[in-house]
């Protein structure tokens, strides 16, 4: 279940890419399949161990192109252990809403992106997220849960400002290149969960809707066409995730 559009990101075979806040690795795996040299970064050692195992399995089965490399790194998003301009492309999917010092994390993403490189950041979209917060305090008060709700204007402002030098030297800001939305089918699912209790997975409506999402993810032939068309129609209206795309200016 991918959130980021890698064609829109401009990902090319052989490029060095960072999946910051990789979690279970969904974006890292797809970038590896496309022939990129991938670094999956997270603070959860257990999840990273599982990601490394699947990287190895992909290499053994030939699922990743010959020559592509993939590795993991555990650490802090506020102090990325990478050199300035090390990555051609960066993905930060559904992570900033969890970080208290989000501006500092954004500054680190900009720092390790090469001039001319691109960055995709996804966060929960404002309207679906507001509804979740209104329906249930448990949705966002859980340990490690969401601590803020972004508007597109706020996040664009934070990213573009993070690209400007703060020492008085000349320099250009990050360039905003557009946005998209994803997972329109998931918003109603979470509204139902928040309405009946976020931990009430046995509720009939929750179970029924979850089955629809499983059909969509697993691409069951009977249902995949219908669910994909429904998702495409819903994404612009109630897509649960907002994805913003940025480019770092080339060095003159």
Topology record:
Blueprint: H1 6-9, E1 16-20, H2 26-33, E2 37-42, H3 45-61, E3 70-74, E4 87-93, H4 102-112, E5 113-124, H5 126-135, H6 138-141, H7 152-162, E6 175-182, H8 186-196, H9 204-218, H10 221-238, E7 241-247
Parallel strand pairs: 1-2, 1-4, 2-3, 4-5
Antiparallel strand pairs: 5-7, 6-7
InterPro entries: Erg6_SMT_methyltransf, Methyltransf_11, SAM-dependent_MTases_sf
Domain Methyltransferase type: 18-121
GO molecular function: S-adenosylmethionine-dependent methyltransferase activity
Written description of the protein model:
The chain is 43% helix and 20% strand. The chain is α/β, with parallel strands linked by helices and 252 residues long. The chain has a domain at 6-124 and 141-183 and 240-247: Vaccinia Virus protein VP39 (Rossmann fold, 3-Layer(aba) Sandwich). A seven-stranded mixed sheet has the order 3-2-1-4-5-7-6, with helices on both faces. α8 runs antiparallel to α9. The chain starts with 5 loop residues before the first helix and ends in a 5-residue tail after the last strand.
